[in-house]
Structures are given as C-alpha cells and as structure tokens.
Automatic annotation (TrEMBL):
Keyword entries, A-Z: DNA-binding, Transcription, Transcription regulation
UniProt biased composition (Gly residues): 16-43
Database matches in SUPFAM superfamilies: Homeodomain-like, Tetracyclin repressor-like, C-terminal domain
Name of this protein: TetR/AcrR family transcriptional regulator
Organism: Streptomyces evansiae
Region named Disordered: 1-50
Record domain HTH tetR-type: where: 63-123
InterPro entries in the cross-refs: DNA-bd_HTH_TetR-type_CS, Homeodomain-like_sf, HTH-type_TetR-like_transc_reg, HTH_TetR, Tet_transcr_reg_TetR-rel_C_sf, TetR_C
Domain of life: Bacteria
Native organism taxonomy: Bacteria, Bacillati, Actinomycetota, Actinomycetes, Kitasatosporales
Pfam families: TetR_C_11, TetR_N
DNA-binding region per UniProt: 86-105
Amino acid sequence: MLNGMASGAKEDDGETGGAEAGPGRGTGAGGAGGPGGAGGPGGAAASPGKARRAPAGAAVLREDVTEAIRAAVFAELAAVGYGRMSIEGVARRAGVGKTAVYRRWRSKLHLVLDLVSAIALQGLPAPDTGSLETDLHLLYEVASRALRHPAASQIVPDLFAEAARNPDLQEALEKALREAQRSVAQGVLDAAAARGEVRAALDRDLALDLITGPLYWRVLVVRTKTHRGYPAALAKTVAAGLRGA
C-alpha cells in the first residue's frame, strides 16, 4: 500500500478527462477504479476478449497517484492527527493537486475510512490449526505486531478519540475495525464449536468481546508494551475461559 510514495507523484498527475471534482462531487472511496466503480467489484463487466475502456469524458485514475495519496494520509495522520488533517495538507504532502484527491474521495472522512477499512481487512489470518488455543495464539501474534506498528500506534488511538466527538467517524470505525476483526474471531469460535471445544450455546457476543478486547485494551488504551510471551499467555487464558463458559 505504501509503495507509491509521494516522491513518485507530480502536481500535474496526468489524469485526463472529466470535469474537475470537488467536495461532494468525487467518486467516493477508490474513485472510478474502486469498489463498485467502473473497474471494481460490482462494476459493469467487460465483454470477453474486449479491453475495458473508460467512458468518454471520465477521468483515468493513475494507481501511483492513488498510492501516493494514501501514503500521504498515513503521514499526515501521524503528524497532525485527524482533527487538523486537511485535504490541502494531504495533497501537498503527496505532491498532487486537491483535484486528484477529490476525484477519488468526497471528503476527508471518506479518505480516512477507505484507508482504515483496507488496513482492517488485510493481514489478519483466518486461523485453522485444529486447536482453539493455537488459533488464538496465531491471531494474537499477527494482531499484536500490527498494533505495535508506529503508524497504527499513533493513528488508531487518535481516530478513536476523534470518534467520541464525531458520530459518523464512530460508526464507520466500528464497521471498519471492529466488525472486520470480529469476523475472524467468529470463525475461530465456529471451528472450536465444531470440534466440541466450546459449547454450541456459548454466548457469542460475550465470547467475541473476550477474544478481541484484552489485546486492544493493553496496546491501544493503556498503551502497555507486550512482552514476547504475551500472545501465547493470552491465548491460553482466553481459551480456558471459553472452554469453561
């Protein structure tokens, strides 16, 4: 995601066609090539054997510019936080004009949420080791490394603090982060129930809170460092609690 750094983009991004987009007029997360767009999932299918051609007058979005903007968002969030972040600042850091940003996202909120959603959905495994404890151990190892990343450790707490004052951000963050990661935990529980390690009638909401809550509390809320054996110890404790529930 961060491969297209700002140095690779120019103020004139070379995207041609289409009227200049502004706030409220952009294409939304991902632009014309994003989810649901002309080139993304849910978009119109191209005829077999024929090259897909952009509609007349539509802007052709360069992927290197998109990646430069995403990298700039990371840097801006880490430097000034969500509250002070601006489209102007992101565009300046990415080395593009504001129009290039608005072609892809309608607002600062949509830009940040697209990025958070992408982070939440990538990198988390769907463990299937044959054991509840080892499934949890694998999940915690990957999640703890991701949460310790400098970008995540700075950006995620700031976004949650801002969400307390911004209902739209709160709702979207819950969907992007909580639901995406709880879906992985749900798979762990389903597999454990199928193996007979936990009761089929187990309170799933409570169990999911138990699986996902402790690591986030330690790393993002009280911001306590985790020692090397913490993921294994947490997995053992949580698995024991779930088996006995």
